[in-house]
Amino acid sequence: MAPDVKILASPGASPQAEVKWSMEAHKSLHCAHSENIRSLLMHGWSFDTDLVGEASTSDNKAEQAKAERIIFRLDSSQFIEETMGSLLSYCYGRSLHGTSVENLLELVDGATYLGMTSFSLRFEESLVAKLKSENVAQCIRLPRNTEQSDSPWDATSIYVRT
């Protein structure tokens, strides 16, 4: 089955801005793992679409729908391509083997942003399991942009549980 979702990342998630990176996935995967995306799809949120391959010449709406792909737009300043790739890879394969502390921090942020609560908790558990006195400093996240302090994604985070 061909991917039916295209993820585009651009500054501010704007359709007019230059696309920094893109990747494809399956709508069922997003619905199964992301409460936010499932809610948008189930409640009739309007998405941009594009055609996959050649469009069907049939008048049958079911056949035409198969030729469309939903476009999700993400803010490229919030997500790097590797983080989204790792997040989708985990959705498909459920393996965190060999994931570094820094990558786990990015996965926690991505899963939280997309409403993947169970994944976020799993990534936090893996992060706690990897904590050692040598790498605890890597778990301190300083603000990315000191001029914008109103965004929860720029706030300082420390992922240490006692």
Automatic annotation (TrEMBL):
InterPro entries reported in the protein's UniProt record: SKP1/BTB/POZ_sf
Domain of life: Eukaryota
Protein name stated in the entry: BTB domain-containing protein
